[in-house]
Design goal:
Layout (H helix, E strand, L loop, with lengths): L3 E2 L11 E5 L9 E2 L3 E8 L2 E5 L2 E5 L4 E4 L5 E5 L2 E5 L4 E5 L3 E7 L6 H4 L5 H10 L3 E3 L1 H16 L5 H14 L3 E3 L16 H12 L6 H6 L5 H12 L3 H19 L4 H7 L5 H12 L3 H12 L1
Parallel strand pairs: 1-3
Antiparallel strand pairs: 2-11, 4-7, 4-11, 5-6, 5-8, 7-12, 9-10, 12-13
Helix pairs in contact: 2-4, 3-4, 8-11
Keywords: DNA-binding, Transcription, Transcription regulation
Organism: Mucilaginibacter yixingensis
Pfam families: AraC_binding (PF02311), HTH_18 (PF12833)
């Protein structure tokens, strides 16, 4: 499967792009680009698929995605006043502050100067995709907002300060270890995108193997081999991760009973939900809800 190469818009009056927008630049598409991507979610919720990981995306999240790292954001487009019955549909808010920067604009001689080793450090760590938190996230967001307003003569200086802060910071976690673009087959351009989107749109219900295989015009056996080769996991392991990821979101954000959360996450009975949830997270749904609530206090 080939993730799409995204050619990002360039501007003659600047060496990097920083935009405050109400949409993502590559909607529901697995893609990669030559630029580093630092993205701050001001408003909105959704899902990030990168490498072999599925991550919830929430308001206040800040991610750094490396060069040529295949990734896909799927942001929620609607919210409901009554989510269970899907009544009172409204457009979901989305506001993003996104920096795209290609280190090649500096030239290899500049990047390889001893004083600039921190730039190489940023590039290397971004290959595993970073999520920043606490004080470091707040500092980086402040610097992004300053970059948005600063006069052109100060932009590069502040960008270098931003990169240096990323290089020296400790308050982050890696999201993905396996993000190698070479692992993708150039012959298949859209298959994984179709599989991911179909799964994210339908995981609440039973998804049969024949059904998901048909979305990419494969027979079930060939589909299973294909998916395992591309993601290093079975399709049903992936589906299970999507469902547990959604259950964690509901445990954090709602007061629904365990039975309702189980059903809304695509499980047909509570015992299976409890068993799989603990297998993937190391704790029961009830223990997780208590932990989320204690952190929120």
């Amino acid at each position: 499967m080939k993730a799409r190469l995204k050619i990002l818009e360039s501007f003659p009056d600047r060496s990097f792009n920083l935009q405050l927008t109400g949409h993502y630049h590559s909607y529901n598409e697995l893609h990669y680009h030559a630029e580093l991507e630092l993205i701050y979610v001001i408003e909105g919720t959704g899902t990030l698929l990168v490498g072999n990981r599925i991550e919830q995306v929430n308001e206040g999240d800040l991610f750094l995605i490396g060069r040529n790292v295949p990734h896909m954001f799927r942001f929620e487009t609607y919210i409901y006043q009554n989510p269970l019955l899907q009544l009172g549909r409204m457009d979901a808010p989305l506001q993003l502050l996104t920096l795209h920067f290609n280190p090649d604009v500096f030239g290899s001689q500049f990047i390889n100067l001893p004083e600039n080793r921190f730039i190489q450090n940023v590039i290397k760590k971004a290959e595993q995709v970073q999520q920043f938190y606490d004080g470091m996230r707040n500092e980086l967001v402040t610097m992004l907002n300053q970059l948005l307003k600063i006069e052109s003569h100060g932009r590069l200086f502040l960008l270098m300060q931003l990169l240096a802060r990323i290089a020296e910071g400790k308050e982050y976690r890696f999201l993905a270890a396996d993000t190698n673009l070479a692992a993708y087959n150039n012959a298949d351009e859209t298959r994984l995108t179709k599989i991911y989107l179909y799964t994210l749109n339908n995981f609440h219900h039973t998804i049969k193997l024949k059904e998901i295989a048909a979305t990419v015009y494969m027979v079930p056996n060939a589909f299973c081999r294909y998916f395992k080769q591309r993601t290093n996991k079975s399709y049903f392991d992936f589906l299970l991760e999507v469902r547990i990821n959604h259950a964690q979101k509901l445990l954090k954000e709602s007061d629904y009973s365990m039975v309702v959360i189980s059903y809304e996450s695509g499980f047909t009975n509570l015992s299976n939900f409890n068993r799989y949830f603990k297998a993937l997270t190391g704790s029961t749904p009830l223990q997780s809800r208590k932990a989320y609530r204690s952190l929120a206090r």
